[in-house]
Fold these 3 entries.
Entry 1:
Amino acid sequence: MPVAHGRFDVKRTPQGALDLGGDAQGMHLRFDKTFEGPLRATSVVHMMAVGTAVEGSAGYVAIERLDGTLDGRSGAFSMMHFGVMDRGHPSLRVEVVPDSGTDELTGLRGTMTIDITNGEHAYTLDYTLPAA
């Protein structure tokens, strides 16, 4: 399975609170990203998040649309994020939405891991693509 590894920059823009019913509110954020490395792309992410009364516990879901090139093949695709913070213990799953690839990225499948160290963002995308 091919692996693409590189860095990305992020711009975060709050979008206002979400009414979740009762007195509960969630956050809505937009992220604009620029990827470097084998994945050369820009993306827009819309994230919805909710915290809890327990410090260190929260969750988020997000949809991301990327447009650019992956190892020289151009197109666009979408990813789904599912993140949980369980009393300070994080878990994150990011997957390519099946059949969301366009143009030369048609048929793309894969998962992405994100690493944030000292404020620097890095990605690793494990993926498959049909033969060109």
Entry 2:
Amino acid sequence: MDETHQKGNLVTMLEDKTLIYLPQLLYNIKYSSWSYEKEYRCIIASTANGMPFIDAKPKAIYIGRDCSDKNADCLFDIADEHEAKIYKMGFDDCIDSYELYYYEFYK
């Protein structure tokens, strides 16, 4: 038994890099009916050097169907700051194709 284990410290060793890269892959998979969105997804740790590294200004913001009021308020602030339109997403529970619709949303 090595000294680290004798002191009761836990050590995690990642021999399989799949544990690191699989979540990143899964975050970037979209349902095929949404492919028309031409969306870019960028995942990076918020503590990484140089954050934010993309100076992007949104033209429009789409608020998710189940977005909380608190988070929606933050998105409204971002939309106001960048003069972006804001839309609310909806979902028709009677359709099996999982297609969302959206409508212009006002505070």
Entry 3:
Amino acid sequence: MKSADGERATPEAVVAALNLGNRITFDQLIAIVAAAHGKPIVIKEIDSSAIPTVTGLWLEKDSVSIILLPAGDSQLHREHAACHEFGHMLLNHDGCGSPEPFMPSMFKHVGSRMGIRRILARSLDWNDTERDAERVAYLLVRALRPNEPEIHNDFERTFL
């Protein structure tokens, strides 16, 4: 998303534009983000052996975006990973560092046959794109759990 002056939108701005209110459910959040994203979002849990080192993976097709999450992770962790992928969608990220070398080879050839336009997974490099998507995730999780105290530093966030 770009702001009115053409600059890249901040995580705070894209979340504020969603007008989430005081408390929402995860299903409501999916619908709201899908409306802002401009296409449906489907969340699928898959066996973690399919994407062993990935906590979340966004596959974008022309008519739908799919988020793959490891089934063995806790619900809280899967929701946070989905919110991180929502951050990439809301911020219109084209990539987050190149995941191709780390993706199972099936995504490289099956993806193009299945109409996948974009695959984003968390980069091994903690760059500005990843930090912005993660900030969106924290802001979205606060809408899901408004009574939790806000954490202001990276060290404390490691314990979530």
